[in-house]
Amino acid sequence: MPSLKESIEQLEHDLKATPMRISVFRDLPFAILRYDPADEWKLRHEARLLASRLAASGREVVPVSFADLLWEALEECEGVDAVIRMEQRSGFPRAQEQVTKYLSDPLWAPLPDLLARKLALLDPRRQIAFLTRTAAMAPHIYFMSMLLDQMKGRTEVPSILFYPGAREGENQLRFMNLPSRDALGTYRVKIYG
Predict the structure, then answer these.
(1) Which domain holds residue 155?
(2) Per its UniProt entry, which superkingdom is the organism in (predicted)?
(3) What is the CATH number of the domain that holds 15?
């Protein structure tokens, strides 16, 4: 397993290539940078350094936080207070289930729609999205493999999903190293790390 630094070096090399070599499919311009959840602060530091180096080569990095998207979705729906009341009445699993519904149901605030709206503001010729704070979707709020499947054909912006978890096999990832989560093998994007 490559170190975080080695993974970032390979990612940087592929982002600076002409054409970029981060994705296999044109209609799914995503890649995953997998890192150990314990390295969150180190990853954030390294990501800022990578963004600076990419800027020096003419590519602007735009961070898109899943934590921010989660709060935005809650506000668009019934608000944070409604989720808090539900958790107090029915417990955390039920509240988490409701948040998942907000992010999944087309009648609420689907996460793919929120992300697509953010990416629509970017110029794919000169900007790269860093999808950060993915741990906000833990423990079982939203599956990143499902999100990537739902983003197919919705953007041309090169996007790097910073994924805290373990790699198991060629394309299987275990989110946040949680023992309650199965390692999923549906990722059809390049995984660094």
Answers:
(1) 4-65+110-192
(2) Bacteria
(3) 3.40.50
Per-position DSSP letters for 84-112, written without gaps between them:
HHHHHHH-HHHHHHHHHHHHH-TTS--HH
Q: Where are the beta strands (DSSP E) in 28-103?
A: 30-35, 60-65
pLDDT tens track for 124-175? 999 999 999 999 999 999 999 999 999 999 999 999 999 999 998 778 899 9
- Give pTM, 2 decimals: 0.95
Give the chain's domain count: 1
Helices 80-90 and 92-104 cross at an angle (nearest 10°) of 140
Could you give the CA distance from residue 124 to residue 128 in angstroms, rounded to a whole number?
Answer: 7
- In whole angstroms, give the CA distance from residue 123 to residue 181: 35
Q: Tokens 């275990």 sit at which residue? A: 174
